Amino acid sequence: GLRLKLTHRDSPNSPLYEPNLSDFERFNKNVEISKARASRFHRFNLQNASLRFPLMHHEYLYTVDIGLGTPVTKRTLIFDTGSHLTWTQCKPCIRCFKQNQPLFDFKKSSTYRLMLTRNKLSRGFKCRSEGCFYLMQYYSGQFSRGILAMEDFTFGTSARVSTRVANMSFGCGTTNVGDFGEGVSGILGMDKVPISFARQLGDRIKHRFSYCLTKIDSNNTKESSSYLSFGDDAVIKGANARSTPFVRMIPDTHYILKLNDISIAGQKLGLSKGTFPEGCVVDSGASISLLNGNAFVKIQECEKTYGERGLFANFPNMTFHFEGADYEVPWENSFMMLGKNVFCLAMKSENVTILGAYQQRNMRIVYDLKDDKMSFAPEDCSRGAA
């Protein structure tokens, strides 16, 4: 197993921390990120030490630091369970977005090599005699284009020593457009496609990974980090774990759950069976959750009733009734405080349903790629930051 540290972008220690943004500006930015991702999902129908990645705050998105090449160079990548290819900006760059870290120079790495066309991970990409090429398109017109390559990646572990995994496939981007943020140099793709980082690690991580997203707000910006863990570290301690199977789609790319209904304060909304025809996508790259329009209207009506009874503290918890498992969202993960007695429901109406990062805070989530299921349990994620 391996692990990497996760860091939230609202942490002052994050490379993407923006101290001058107001709470309202942050909220609007999160809404636009999540809505744009929704359009993407809709368009594509969507030794015994454990490896671990540190997760870092990134405005309700999270980043990881990972070592690439020989000698090792640090790359800061956005952690994204809704994307499959891991890529970073490389020299020579035809067109690149501004980043604080130097561009990856593959000519200086002794372990870099092009992906061969006979590599099974090249399926679905355009290949010619000189190599295989990729084009990744994201929300708001962002994209990355480049060549597929093989390289060594270096991780931290639970034993507090680094370890190297050789010959991992990744994208070396030479044309990259979009506002990814100057503090990052690419994406860590973690969905279900064979070329995703998690699927490539495969047997080495016992086909599972987990994370527990810490919470932070503008009134409490002290560092609070957790880990993206793999293998033996990717477990839920205690007996309160619940599991629900992933829905298998064609193509089977995203982590999708069957959502049957939603409750407010223990009272089901009584949503019809056809309310969530495409299921619910679990997406760490979406800042906030998005809900099918019919469900969103009912939630608004219900929450308004509670709001008229008093102040913010009177708002109830929300429960997502997935197939075989109930996922409870505490009220502090349902609303964003934008000032004194000013708050907004941290969800938006869209044509697809996504469980975003804000609603995943303080929940240990385990992805089991072998048994094709997700397990989860409430946890104080700040306690796992050591």
TrEMBL record:
<dbReference type="InterPro" id="IPR021109">
    <property type="entry name" value="Peptidase_aspartic_dom_sf"/>
</dbReference>
<dbReference type="GO" id="GO:0006508">
    <property type="term" value="P:proteolysis"/>
</dbReference>
<dbReference type="InterPro" id="IPR051708">
    <property type="entry name" value="Plant_Aspart_Prot_A1"/>
</dbReference>
<keyword id="KW-0378">Hydrolase</keyword>
<dbReference type="GO" id="GO:0005576">
    <property type="term" value="C:extracellular region"/>
</dbReference>
<comment type="similarity">
    <text>Belongs to the peptidase A1 family.</text>
</comment>
<dbReference type="InterPro" id="IPR034161">
    <property type="entry name" value="Pepsin-like_plant"/>
</dbReference>
<keyword id="KW-0645">Protease</keyword>
<keyword id="KW-0325">Glycoprotein</keyword>
<dbReference type="InterPro" id="IPR033121">
    <property type="entry name" value="PEPTIDASE_A1"/>
</dbReference>
<dbReference type="GO" id="GO:0004190">
    <property type="term" value="F:aspartic-type endopeptidase activity"/>
</dbReference>
<protein>
    <recommendedName>
        <fullName>Peptidase A1 domain-containing protein</fullName>
    </recommendedName>
</protein>
<dbReference type="Pfam" id="PF14543">
    <property type="entry name" value="TAXi_N"/>
</dbReference>
<dbReference type="InterPro" id="IPR032799">
    <property type="entry name" value="TAXi_C"/>
</dbReference>
<dbReference type="Pfam" id="PF14541">
    <property type="entry name" value="TAXi_C"/>
</dbReference>
<dbReference type="InterPro" id="IPR032861">
    <property type="entry name" value="TAXi_N"/>
</dbReference>
<feature type="domain" description="Peptidase A1">
    <location>
        <begin position="62"/>
        <end position="377"/>
    </location>
</feature>
<keyword id="KW-0064">Aspartyl protease</keyword>
